[in-house]
Design a protein that fits this description.
Elements lengths: L9 E7 L5 E6 H8 L12 E9 L5 E10 L14 H7 L1 E5 L4 E5 L18 E2 L2 E2 H11 L32 H170 L2 H10 L4 E5 L3 E5 L4 H6 L1 H8 L4 H12 L39 H8 L1
Parallel strand pairs: 4-6
Antiparallel strand pairs: 1-2, 1-3, 3-4, 5-6, 7-8, 9-10
Helix pairs in contact: 7-8
């Protein structure tokens, strides 16, 4: 392996989705290009994403983690004011759990080496069923980024690094005892390491929960203070309104008392005036009553005279209308008798009279032109005009009907395979006797004679 392809530590950035999985992975130079505006992420438009910066060793093990937020605008471009020094935070971060390569460097909200960056960081979930650290460890192991991995096979030791043991140590002690001691020491070390890692995870989780609870308590306290201020403002407004209402009520009571006293004085004065009027007005009312009765009698007499005059006029009008009705009835009877006389003379007698007077009956029909109908043919013409005209044209009634349809609309009547009429315009046959069905009413392509010639 050349020096250029030698595995080395790699910086990478991974984006968390809302469901908790990893939705995007990239190298740190790609992330810097994203921050510089070289590329955008439309899939993250108008969202605040949870992101993790990590340092990965050649054996695909995580050595450092920084959990931070990144805001994107409606076009998918990152916040231009974002300026968290991820590499510096990763180097100065405190110790975290062991993800396979010893305790990692971990920077998050509850463990941030720079206090003013704390609000831009977030705490990973460490619950057994939803551990973000374990998720990142497994994603890195899958090597979706295609990192160069260090060969884990045992490397040959260079001869110059070999050391010769002293002669008295060439022969090893009892292998069983040595193996048991090594196994016990290794088991003890593993147990201590696991206990330390578990304690570290629990401390981190406790710190994260404490931070979360303090934030929630601060929010509740702020909401309570704002609600208390609002309630106090409402109480003050209500007290002021109550005082204003009390002053207004007192003014209204005083006004009502003054009005009541004034009404009482006016009532007493009106009572005295009424008594005086009653005493002085009795005689005047008697004279007024007599005058009123006289006037009423005069008005009634005048009205009765007017009504009698109107009744007399109505009687005259009724007599005139009765005379008109009698004359109209006589005229109706005379007209009925004249109608009966006309009805008794028959229609034939009327036609004979008209014929004797020199009147001629002429009708026009297509194909026959103007026909003069003798008096003796009037009845047959009335029964079936088309049969009468067909006989004059020396054709049958059916042929005349077919020719008349062709004459009124000269077009091909043949049916196409689709069931519609051909309807191509053709030459009109002016004489019914020259009309031939399936020949004169069809175009050249549908004439029966052309079909017969084609078959033969």
């Amino acid at each position: 392996m050349s020096m250029q392809n030698k595995p080395q530590m790699v910086e990478a950035v991974m984006f968390f989705s809302e469901r908790g999985g990893i939705c995007k992975q990239m190298f740190f130079p790609e992330f810097e290009a994203l921050l510089d505006g070289v590329v955008n992420m439309p899939e993250f438009a108008d969202q605040q994403m949870r992101v993790a910066y990590m340092l990965i060793n050649p054996r695909l093990l995580i050595k450092g983690l920084v959990f931070f937020y990144l805001d994107f605008d409606e076009k998918g471009a990152p916040d231009s004011g974002w300026n968290i020094p991820l590499q510096a935070l990763g180097e100065r971060a405190g110790r975290g759990p062991d993800l396979g390569a010893g305790p990692i460097r971990l920077a998050c909200r509850s463990q941030c080496p720079v206090s003013w960056h704390q609000m831009h960081l977030w705490d990973p979930s460490l619950s057994p069923g939803n551990n973000d650290l374990a998720l990142l460890r497994d994603v890195v192991k899958r090597n979706s980024l295609g990192l160069l991995v260090e060969d884990e096979r045992s490397q040959a030791v260079a001869p110059e690094r070999l050391q010769m043991a002293s002669e008295d140590k060439w022969y090893a002690p009892d292998p069983g005892q040595e193996e048991a001691a090594k196994a016990n020491h290794k088991l003890d070390q593993e147990q201590r390491l696991k206990a330390a890692q578990l304690i570290k995870q629990q401390r981190l989780r406790i710190s994260s929960l404490t931070q979360q609870h303090e934030e929630e308590l601060a929010k509740f306290k702020l909401a309570s203070e704002e609600q208390s201020k609002s309630r106090q403002t409402q109480i003050t407004d209500l007290q002021q309104t109550l005082r204003q209402q009390e002053v207004h009520n007192a003014a209204l009571k005083a006004q009502l008392a003054a009005q009541a006293a004034s009404f009482q004085a006016v009532r007493e004065e009106m009572t005295e005036q009424l008594r005086a009027l009653e005493h002085d007005g009795r005689s005047e009312s008697d004279s007024l009553r007599a005058q009123f009765e006289g006037e009423m009698q005069a008005k009634i007499a005048s009205a009765v005279a007017d009504y009698k005059e109107q009744i007399a006029i109505r009687d005259v009008e009724l007599a005139y209308r009765s005379e008109q009705d009698t004359q109209a009835l006589q005229e109706i009877n005379r007209l009925k008798r004249a109608y009966a006389d006309l009805a008794s003379q028959g229609g034939d007698q009327i036609l004979e009279r008209l014929a004797k007077l020199g009147m001629v009956f002429v009708v026009y029909h297509p194909g026959a032109g103007h026909l003069t109908i003798p008096l003796q043919d009037i009845a047959s013409y009335q029964d079936n005009p088309q049969a009468y005209v067909a006989a004059k044209c020396f054709v049958s009634e059916e042929q005349y009907r077919q020719w008349l349809a062709h004459y009124q609309q000269p077009s091909c009547e043949a049916l196409l395979p689709s069931g519609e009429r051909c309807a191509i315009p053709i030459d009109r046959i002016d004489t019914p006797s020259r009309f031939n069905l399936a020949e004169s009413n069809c175009c050249a392509r549908h004439k029966a004679s052309s079909r017969l010639r084609t078959v033969s």
